[in-house]
Amino acid sequence: MKIAVCIKRVPDSETRVKIAADGKSLDETGGGVKFVLNPYDEFAVEEALRRKEKAGAGEVAVLCLGPAAAQETIRTALAMGADRGVLLQVEKIPVDPFEVAKVIAAELKSTIWDLILFGRMAIDDYNTQVGSLVAELLGLPCVTAVSHLDIEGTKGVAEREIEGGIEVVDFPLPAVLTVDKGLNEPRYPALKGIMAAKKKPLDVKPVQPGGGALEVMALTPPPERKEGKIVGEGAGAVGELVRLLREEAKVL
Amino acid sequence: MTTLAVLEQRDGVLRKISYEVVTGAQRLGGSVEAVVCAPAQVQGADQVGKFGADKIVTLTNPAFVKYAPEACAQALAERAKQGGYRTLVFAASATGKDLAPRVAAKLGVGVAADLTDLAADGSGLVVTRPVYAGKALMKVKVTAHPAVLSLRPNVFTAVERPKAGAAETVAVNVPPGGGRVIVREIKAAPAGTLDVAEAQVIISGGRGLKEPANFKVLEELARAFGGKAAVGASRAVVDAGWRAHADQVGQTGKTVSPSLYIAVGISGAIQHLAGMRTSKVIVAINKDKDAPIFKVADYGVVGDLFEIVPKLTEEIRKLHG
Questions:
Q1: Which of A154, A195, A220, B216 lies in disulfide reach of A173, CB 3.0 to 4.6 Å?
Q2: Could you tell me if B249 and B233 are in contact, meaning their C-beta atoms sit under 8 angstroms apart?
Q3: Chain A contact for B133, CB < 8 A?
Q4: Which fold is adopted by the domain A2-206?
């Protein structure tokens, strides 16, 4: 099995968001922002490793579009067990996901992959689409938000959560899948893996994405929620709570 | 200037979120054409005019009996190319998140996704999208042509207006066999279970519930709301296997914006807040008065949830009784 996993370096969800002086981007200076491998991409890396292990042969390549510092993110995936990494190096990740997809698709198209895996979404920009866009650009079948997967030969069956149920989807390989939580339990890199990762091949290729059709005008903190109030303590406060929900908030 | 509002149907019935999409599309001014892929005329299509669509077009093909990703994408992209719409609006629902990028890519653009606000701005569009777990709002100018947008569910409250729309049915061709990616079946959740993504009221439980069986106190409260409420869960209890991932609210679960969100025994980690901070009214019930959830809650009650929640259930039953 030849599998490509597309990953992203993102700020950890616990990061305190400080807006840069330009009023349009995240302030990454001063080491205040901790970057991690996007959590959904961990499921993708794990799934690729399991598929390769099950097949008994193959390759797991990790592809990342990002700044030079994203090498560290790729090393995390290599430490989990991926075989090699490619960094499509940019100074800044384009805001327009279509530009991201074009660069990734251009890199992937020279190889025939059995599977191309993505996380369902990145937890920084919530775009939830790069995998689907890449699949269209490559003309490959695509299933998104996969939370269960069976593959026999070149036939796959995936499950994806929808509102009020689960869709069971048939698809042929090769395919692009974007994966959801629940698919597997990602492994932690062991010390041996971390040591081995340092020696695995990591290609750095500078790329020049286009400008795209989305332009950030401003990045602002969300409106402060109006200061709430503690209605009271214990079951005795319930009467007043219900009154406030009816008369003040008008939601009952 | 016409906006194409892409509606959703399941089992031949228009989904409620479709009306939100029409309402959102209306904000851009100009006329709104609504479109839905279905095997035949759908129930509810005659209501779309009332929500502001000037016309509803049903693209029909037997392949559309279940969601057919490739066939729908092809049909919609062809329609979009022929119609020359300035903007396409989808819901950022499970289906919309799958479908919008497929259509967008065929039109050579990306999706401005999961919007909480949008407005026409001269020759372009300015949209707002929550980023970084909802800790920032990104205002984005969209110059793509067409612009493809998806709207966060429950944010664009559907507004009825006295207006009828024209209706049109067009049979369309789809790829052989309906495409390569085929939805074989839908395993439905048990009858009467409302999805957290669609509920007007959500009662979510966390570790404070102490054990899985105790979620029944939340289920009883949900029932007291008479079919409007769903039970959600924090990541901690989903990871512990107490509740299904489908119920998880938060960064690695669902993003919800109900009218009323009641967080019970949930401390309020940032990853949970990411999924529910756009709720209209938030109530927190927690024994720890310093829990971060009280910082985002409009109303808080401090104390033992096993005393407070049953009392609340009783009061709500009285109101709905």
A1: A154
A2: yes
A3: yes
A4: Rossmann fold (3.40.50)
